[in-house]
Amino acid sequence: MEKRRFGNTGLETSVLGFGGFHLCEIPYGTAEKLLNDYLDAGGNYIETAPSYGAGESEIKIGKAVSHRRDEFVLVTKAHQRTYEECKQSIDASLRRLQTDHVDVLLMHAVDTMDTLDQILSDDGAIKAAEEAVREGKAKHIGLSMHGQPDVLIEALKRYPFEAVMSTINYFDVCNFPKITQELIPLANEKGIAIILMKPVGDGYLYRSVEPAFTYAFNQPVSVIVAGANNQEMLDTDLAMANNYLPLSEEGIEDILKDAVELGTYVCRQCGKCMPCPEGVDITGVFRLEGMNDRQMSDGIMTNPADYALRERLKHWFGTKERSIKEYAALEGKASLCTECGICVPKCPYQIDIIRKLKNADYKLAPQEEKIWI
Length: 373
Fold this sequence. Notes:
Strand order of the largest sheet: 3-4-5-6-7-8-9-10
Helix content: 40-55%
Distance between the termini: 51 Å
Number of domains: 2
Strand content: 5-15%
CATH architecture of the largest domain: Alpha-Beta Barrel
Radius of gyration: 21 Å
Largest sheet: 8 strands, parallel, barrel
Low-confidence stretches: none
Structural class: alpha/beta
């Protein structure tokens, strides 16, 4: 399997990583076989967290593959924010994983600036992580977060993290464009390893597994982490990792054009509809709609299963209130639209921009007794 440089750490990781969350869904015997099959196939990156099943994922990994510890890069996380709590979490993780060290320790779910401040404070979790490095319990320190990457970007500017884990898939880069516009370039400039998670968008891209993984494998990242809870899923992931084709910029654009999940509703943030003669910040409005509900409430009904999945995932990252607050401060609100239609033929994805602006305004500018038009 292809190996990639893991930032400036000196490590090399297989292009496909094994995510440990889904190990909580299966019995130990199945987990043991999947983990060993992954290593036998040339994979060398296994990642978990103590919060996955209250330690169950770490226990299964430790029991299944600790005897092969020198064959893989082991990553776990710490969700605690203070020195003492993080120190205890690290020691408990090592016990469950049946090892004396992890290769990478990630500060987990660093989702607000206040959380970042707390972790980096004099009594913050980062002190426990640094202590773990000095004691040989961890080799490298990173951090992770889902969705909007503002905190990750700020964190990489404030502390010498060696790895960063972010949601990166062809759907959510449209909802959180700073991922590709700012986070990835910044990390690569600093030599920070990028861990790509959620290549199939929390399962939302289940109809498009091959293009989703092809997009992921073509990103300038160190490793693509995917979970597997059955043999067919693992075999499929391994086959795609070993056989994906490198894409040109045109090839990436083809995925964005053809993706059924994006269709003629999701804004790709290309900016070709701008400028608006009435001053509507079209891409800004749609960026905030993506932050609000990942552009999932489009008013287009397909089937109950698809609707249920959207309802479950649309506020997954918890940024709805932030989007409403930022929209209140946006100068070029959708309400300025006069429906002149100049923008519509400019969109290369055939989005009905006028209709979409109305939908976005409905979500972002709540008011009494209004209806979704």
